[in-house]
Amino acid sequence: MEDEPVSVAAVESVGQDAIAIAFESPADFTANPGQFVKLSADIDGERESRFYTISSSDVEDTFEITVEIDPDGAFGPILADLTAGDELDVSGPYGNAYYEDESRTVVLAGGPGVGPAVGIARRALADGNEAAVVYRDDDPIHEDALEDIEARGATVHVLDADDDTVAATTDVVTGEEGEQVFVYGFADFLDAATSAIDAAGGDPDAAKVENFG
Question: At 187, is the secondary structure helix, strand, or coil?
Fold first, then answer.
């Protein structure tokens, strides 16, 4: 799908300078939790585009993205001002680091990587599978969603930005058959996460990884 108009269904605050935006899914739009889309808009006569990972458990009626707003950015403040009924263009989905009905999912998330972590965990639990999330951030967001998935049976570790990830990763990486580890975040977190997977006895090369830059 390329530059298909989509309407905003709802915008919700999920933390300081962070929002979840639900868009009405175009006809025939299919995607799995963990894939990403490209959003585009004309801003001051220039075409601007950014990529955002899907943070909803499915895309049947709507799909959700999670955005941490940089007030000095070109695109984030535009998203922050959206209301129901506003339109942008969407392309995608893209990416191969997505949920595929694995019997156990472990998601290591840094910063905005918590968006796909929540979506994958919710979908896994709805499918009757196991889920675990290790989330590291200096100012956590999506706390209500994390509490919800924990109440539904997921293992959740929320760490400060300076915390080591090894202990929490060791707690959730079992190495059992059918387990799939996902990693979402910026490059420095990816380095820490893959090292933690290795220290926990997992296989970093088998992880599904998305680098946010």
Answer: helix
